[in-house]
């Protein structure tokens, strides 16, 4: 069983389009994340949800909107895609233990290419 | 704020060579420290962790010791294999900041040649 899954794995689209990436975890964790990894492998956190509540919202264009329908799912919708949005997007989950994160489990990533 | 600094890569080694990847950190409180590994085309996987000073994390022949006095968590392996070629990320988690997320270093690419 895949612990953290993402769909799609690859996404090629044109500038100006709107697209969504979906994430699901079956680990029973209460916290989920979206990261963006650029071409130099630098990881930047974008959003985090704890029990469906948004707890981290980094400086990200408001074209990016996360949604967490329940603890096991976290989706990312991107409006009006731009060339600079091309990257690999990773979903992750963890269990928050008294405000401490001990391990994060990552999905396989979604490679987004905007042309 | 918290931060993690890793040595820049790529690190290129021959098979069976000794590996060290340096990692130092700054933190408000007493963080837990992690090494993650990312193989080509995959997501990150936890390699090892240490939750308090002087703890040694180990896995798959890799080791790292939590050194509070030097604020370091260097990754070592005695004899690398071609299959160890990957990007390695040092990270920390610090309850004192109230930030419920890991802080990652910039990653170090390791290339092992046969």
Q: How are the SSEs ordered, and which strands pair?
A:
The complex is a heterodimer of chains A (115) and B (114).
Chain A: E1 4-7, E2 10-13, E3 19-25, E4 31-37, E5 43-50, E6 53-57, E7 64-70, E8 73-78, E9 87-94, E10 96-97, E11 100-101, E12 105-106, E13 110-114
Parallel strand pairs in A: 2-13
Antiparallel strand pairs in A: 1-3, 3-8, 4-5, 4-9, 5-6, 7-8, 9-12, 9-13, 10-11
Chain B: E1 3-6, E2 11-14, E3 19-21, E4 23-26, E5 32-38, E6 44-50, E7 56-59, E8 62-65, E9 75-77, E10 86-93, E11 103-104, E12 108-113
Strands of chain B, count: 12
Q: How helical, in percent, are the residues of chain B?
A: under 10%
Provide the structure class of chain A: mainly beta
Assembly status: heterodimer
Task: Kindly report how far apart the N and C termini of chain A lie.
Answer: 34 Å
**What is the 3D form of chain A?**
globular
Number of helices of chain B: 0
Strand content of chain B: over 45%
The residue-averaged pLDDT of chain A reads 91
Helix and strand sequence of chain B: EEEEEEEEEEEE
Alpha-carbon distance between the termini of chain B? Answer: 41 Å
Number of strands of chain A: 13
Instruction: Give me the secondary-structure category of chain B.
Output: mainly beta
Which value, in Å, is the CA radius of gyration of chain B? 14 Å
């Amino acid at each position: 069983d895949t612990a953290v899954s993402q769909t799609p794995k690859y996404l090629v689209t044109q500038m100006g389009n709107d697209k969504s990436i979906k994430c699901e975890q079956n680990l029973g964790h209460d916290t989920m994340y979206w990261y963006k990894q650029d071409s130099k492998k630098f990881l930047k956190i974008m959003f985090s949800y704890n029990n469906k509540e948004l707890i981290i919202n980094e400086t990200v264009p408001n074209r990016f909107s996360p949604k967490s329908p329940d603890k096991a799912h976290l989706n990312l919708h991107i409006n009006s895609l731009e060339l600079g949005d091309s990257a690999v997007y990773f979903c992750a989950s963890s269990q928050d233990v008294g405000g401490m994160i001990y391990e994060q489990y990552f999905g396989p990533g979604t490679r987004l290419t905007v042309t | 704020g918290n931060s993690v600094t890793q040595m820049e890569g790529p690190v290129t080694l021959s098979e069976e060579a000794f590996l060290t990847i340096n990692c130092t950190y700054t933190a408000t409180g007493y963080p837990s420290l992690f090494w993650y590994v990312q193989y080509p085309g995959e997501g990150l996987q936890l390699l090892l962790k240490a939750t308090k000073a002087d703890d040694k994390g180990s896995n798959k022949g890799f080791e790292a010791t939590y050194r509070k006095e030097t604020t370091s968590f260097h990754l070592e392996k005695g004899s690398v294999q071609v299959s160890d070629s990957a990007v390695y990320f040092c990270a920390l988690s610090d309850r004192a900041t109230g930030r419920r997320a890991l802080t990652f270093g910039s990653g170090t690419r390791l290339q092992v040649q046969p």
